[in-house]
Amino acid sequence: MTAIELVRDELTVSPLRRARMLRMTAIVVLIVVTSMALRVPEVALSAYIIFFIAQRDVALTVGAGIGAAVAATLAIALCFVCYSLSIGEPAVRVPLMVALVFGGIYLMRSTPAGLLGLLFGFFTFYTLTLADWVPSPEALVRALLWLWVVLCYPIGLLVLTDLAIGDRPAELYRSGIGERLAAAAAFLAADPDREADARPRLERYVRLGARELVPYVERSGPPTAAPIRAALLRQTELLGLLLRELPDDLRRNPAARPALRRASVACDGARDVLLGGDHTTERPFELLATERRALDAMPPAARAVVLPLVNCLQTIALSVHQLSRLPASDATPLIHIPKSPPPADPQEGVRFAIKVTLAATSAYLLYTGLVWYSIHTATITCFFVAEDSVGATIHKLTLRLAGAIVGATLGMLAIVWVLPAFESVGGLAILVAAVTLLAAWVATGSEAISYAGFQIALAFYLTVLQGFSRTSKLYVGRDRVIGILIGNIVMSVIFTSLWPVRAEPAQRQALARAVEALAAMLRTSPEEHDALARAEADFYQQVTAARQYTLFVWFERVPSPRRLLPTVVQGLFVPIHAIVRTPVPATASPAARAAMSSANAGVSDWLRAFATSIASYATVPPPPSPDPAVTTLERVAADGENQTAETRAQARQQREWLELLYAQCGELAARVPA
User: Fold this and answer.
1) pTM of the entire structure?
2) Predicted local confidence at residue 287, as pLDDT
3) How many CA atoms within 13 Å lie on the side-chain side of 435?
4) How far apart are CA 445 and CA 18, in angstroms?
């Protein structure tokens, strides 16, 4: 994926994303006006909490809001206890801060607490640092009580708004599938000369994958229908992959045009039914016998795509119609708190907590030692950019710094050129709305860019919303950016030198498991439908994970002796899917069945050896030779005495697909230098 493709993919606005952007902007403007009118302090923090708590669907937003309110309440209550013990003793207060941070981060990493652990650790640490610049115990108590109001009243407003007009999980799932089906229909219906106009939209969804929709398989309806939703999601992703692999000259082939037109109509019909259209228009999609005979004259690479494409659309139509007959009510709960799975290595949670605690404490001691409290964003940075791997952490650090620079710059320009022209809170609301809409546009993207939107909003709010009157202090934005830069440096040094965890080995393991799933598919009989479905699901899961690591590997900047692209591995799936999903003719003799089954063994064994080599950094095995399998299938195809015409045609087709697969295996081996 090029940088231009990444930016285009991330900044494309869908109807649901547009609604979420406008909803976040309206709530932030309402909070700013309310806080200014009622003189609630820390307006910037109240506005920013909306970005932090707002999620993609109402269940996640309500769960995150309730969790954040509970964590803030417990943290502030605990701070009163800690202050009663250490208000005048920094030697006691600092160890308490360290212990609470470590405990919160450990809960986040090693228990299902997840977000609650992070929020608890951050709130307790941040509130205990208030003693450094709040002048008296009485003012400190008032500040803590106001902090609870500052945090909880925007959360309550956000939760109520989402409950009223937020996006439901079922709506997000169906809309996501519908958008992909619409892109597929437009691509299939495009004329040969207009294909270039429809391809970017399709390829965008292929690059994005379906990872953002996976959580909604379980949460977008009755649990009994989860297998149907999972099958529909896998087949929709397969549809995009098959369309991407269509040969360029296929549209000009008269034999393929009827099938492509019918496929486009089927995609549009499935989308309409899925989104609540007229169910009376249901018509099965099947490949007519005359069209199937016409496709026999096509090249093997084209048949390996078109025939599975037909089967894929039949499964999609069946799944959509099954979902359309289910009750319309959404049986999923309105509260869902995301949980972090515990690390595979129990010691990893301890190590991660130590690294974050060390970084946050170092940043705190640095700015307190310099008596430069306005750069306290250095400590905040350490909490919210810590990720599993070095690459993921550096990626988030980069987004945080870039977003902070943009937000602070916009804030400083507003102080100099825009705010002097405003005489009322109405003008300020317009300014905040414009920048919030920009920040929400970025923040509602995927994790590749979303954190930059958070920082644009935070830096702008901290720079502009400094009190209840027009401000002229430019140093606030400058100091916030300096603090973030210091936090980035501290985190980079600690996470790259103390128990560093790289993303590249994790990507290798995911790719190895994906290749092993392909080998398992080749060892499975076409009659074993459940086993094939499990192998395909495992392949999609592992390829999705490998693609997720690609960006993080790039940020690690570690020279890799082997460049494995998930797209190359994903390309193997097309001929393998065609081979294993084409049933052996019922008229085939036992000898023919055995020959067709054993023909796949050679490439399956090579894929297993290849998976082992990329997982263990071993030497890549030489590409397999297709001669034994081709000879076996040619013998069956030429046996006119013992085999029927259907069996001989099947043997010829499998031989052609195997030759294509062997060629792709050789290309894959060439891409991975020894």
Assistant:
1) 0.87
2) 53
3) 31
4) 11
